[in-house]
Write a structure and sequence with these properties.
two-stranded antiparallel ribbon; 9 helices; 2 strands; globular
Length: 237
């Protein structure tokens, strides 16, 4: 069945992407505020720091940055290898299982005291963010990232300019869809920042709320509304 001829999979629904992006904003704010002043949803900063420490011949610190990079690598590797085995079960999709795993990891993170080495939590979030980024790739056939913002900024400008110049409403809509992802990311960060004033390390549990809604949407689709599409591959894979 061609992608254009089948129903939109639940894991391609823009609502799901907005919920995941909100959770990502929460994870980003959480690790920055409470877990070492880093942003664990992507690896550019770690690669820059690795290069800087190598250049200054600080080998131990350079090795330190290899750990989160490897965690991100491992998350991507697993999210490439595991889905085909999950699909064979004909029970649920990998996308659904992944969101459940993320909920479990974030629950565990909230129990880890701030006195524990921040590297532990950073690696845990590196790992799940990598799997999420590699698993959820397109919302309604539009390439989307659900863990960081750089490409959304670029894409929003591109499509708004094209849509304005050509008078194309579909292109304008595409641009605004990227802007909405940026706004929901910011909202997630704000919510964790506020909740963190009161519940500190447990503020990451706020991210479980959008994740749980996402899990419910995906699980219902797998078991009921889209059971016949269980073997379909999401767009972008």
């Amino acid at each position: 069945m061609e992608k254009s001829e089948r129903d939109l999979l639940a894991c391609e629904n823009p609502v799901v992407y907005h919920l995941l992006m909100m959770a990502a904003g929460m994870m980003g704010a959480y690790t920055f505020i409470f877990r070492g002043g880093v942003f664990c949803n992507a690896q550019t900063a770690n690669l820059v720091m690795l290069a800087a420490e190598l250049g200054r011949k600080k080998w131990a610190m350079a090795a330190y940055y290899l750990v989160p990079i490897f965690a991100y690598f491992a998350g991507t590797l697993i999210s490439e290898l595991i889905p085909k085995y999950i699909k064979k079960s004909r029970l649920i999709r990998w996308d659904t299982l992944l969101v459940f795993i993320e909920i479990m990891v974030l629950t565990a993170v909230g129990f880890i005291p701030l006195s524990i080495n921040h590297h532990v939590v950073q690696i845990m979030i590196n790992f799940i963010a990598s799997m999420q980024y590699n698993t959820f790739r397109q919302a309604d056939h539009v390439p989307m990232a659900t863990t960081f913002c750089t490409n959304h900024i670029r894409q929003s400008v591109i499509w708004l300019v094209k849509g304005t110049k050509e008078g194309d409403r579909d292109k304008l809509k595409r641009g605004f869809s990227h802007i909405s992802m940026l706004l929901i990311f910011i909202l997630g960060g704000v919510l964790v920042s506020i909740s963190g004033l009161f519940i500190k390390e447990m503020s990451i549990w706020v991210a479980i709320l959008p994740m749980t809604v996402t899990f419910g949407i995906l699980l219902y689709a797998d078991l009921k509304s889209q059971k016949e599409l269980l073997m379909e591959t999401p767009s972008g894979h």
